[in-house]
Amino acid sequence: MSFRSNLHQERGQALVEYVLLLMVVSVLAFTVFRSDAFKGLLGPDAQIFKVLKLQQEYSFRHGSPLGETPESSDYNGNHHTYKNPETNASRFFAPTRAYP
What we know:
The chain has 100 residues and is mainly α.
């Protein structure tokens, strides 16, 4: 066989190889993404996201990380995350005088 006739027989081989490779990668991706282990780790009801949600809700509500007990539980407006008692300053913006 000459080089020229061999070249005509291999036409389209690269396209076929790319299509087969795409199919193999697709099958592997669907297998991984639909597995119970993957859904348990990153799925809609994943435990890691439930824990993160609980921590964020607690720290937003109480101003301290989950499991950390606040210094005081009095609700007289002197929350430890709002006003620093040592410097008598707040981390929030506030007007310097009353609004007319």
